[in-house]
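It is worth pausing here to work through a concrete case rather than discussing structure prediction in the abstract. The textbook approach is simple: state the sequence, then state the predicted structure, then interpret. We follow exactly that order.
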Amino acid sequence: MGRRGLLNQEELDFLLEVMETRLPDGLPRHPQFSVDGGEAGNAMLVRLAASSELQMTALFRSHKLVFPLQLVQDEFGKLTLELRPPRIYEQGPTVRQWRLEPSIPLRLITADGSTTELEIAQLSQSSALIRSSERAPEHVKGFIELPSNGRRVAISAVKVRDVGTQHAAYLLSYDEQEQEDQINSFIFEQHRKQHPELSIEEHLSEMGISAY
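Step two, the predicted structure:
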């Protein structure tokens, strides 16, 4: 699909307000937008969503935010687009996922609630740099307790390589989409706190919807 025009300030304010709103159980609320493109337009969108990944992309300065879009159709044929938490990328000679360096320790927790000696030094949507005082394990399975809401998110990780003597890089995987969304929401919150100069309200240069 082609690019659309800039969001106005009212639309941006609404988007950010909704993304910061949480449900009673502490989960982030996903913004939803009704779609009315007429019979032909809606049919095309349904076909695109069935064969492609819909996403909304925001570009500002050297950062790119990609919001996955989920198309929902009710029993009356009404279409709704649900905006999922974004994946954040840094643009340069190579494009890579933005890596959060937590300001407070993020330790892996076991299923029984015990704190392990494994600490997350960097975190992105699909990977983590984990610090360990001993030899890093090949596989990691446990929970991350998010300081923003106290929720514990289950993750699984497979070691990709050792980094020095006390760190190892891991590839993350999730059992459920909601787990990945919670991690992405946390990273998005921290990104906004650590980079106030990259405020979406002030520096959003372009926002569009595309299909891949």
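Step three, interpretation. The two ends are 9 Å apart (CA to CA). The helical segments are 9-20, 38-51, 177-194, 200-203.
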